[in-house]
Amino acid sequence: IVFGDWSSDVCSSDLVDDALLQRDWEYFQKLGDKSFSLTDGVSFVLMKERGINRALAFDKHFAQAGFTKLP
Questions:
Q1: The dihedral of CA 44, 31, 17, 49: what is its sign?
Q2: d(Cα 40, Cα 24) in Å, to the nearest integer?
Q3: Which of 11, 49, 45, 10 is nearest to 62 (CA)?
Q4: Which of 16, 52, 56, 60 is the most exposed place for a label (fewest CB within 10 A)?
């Protein structure tokens, strides 16, 4: 991924299409007792699909969703 003069091969940018929004909605319904944002939900879905279990995050939602929160 490239942003201006900065580039990285360890992060990516994903298009949020109808299929991803549908997977997010299904995931949200499973965790309906939690309150998290659409952005968090999309992140959770993509992380689960890619086998990522740790997140650099500053809120409780990633831990609530079962991820290890860093720091």
A1: positive
A2: 9
A3: 45
A4: 56
Render the chain in DSSP notation, one character per residue: -EETTEE-SS-------HHHHHHHHHHHHHTTTS---HHHHHHHHHHHHHT--EEE-SSSHHHHTTPEEE-
Please state whether beta strands 68-70 and 54-56 pair in parallel, antiparallel, or not at all (unpaired).
parallel
Mean pLDDT, range 40-63, rounded to an integer: 92
Q: 1-13: per-residue pLDDT in tens? A: 666 777 777 777 8
Overall residue count recorded for the chain in this entry: 71
Paired tokens of 44: 């959770």
Is pTM beyond 0.90 here?
Answer: no
How far is C-alpha 24 from the chain's CA centre?
9
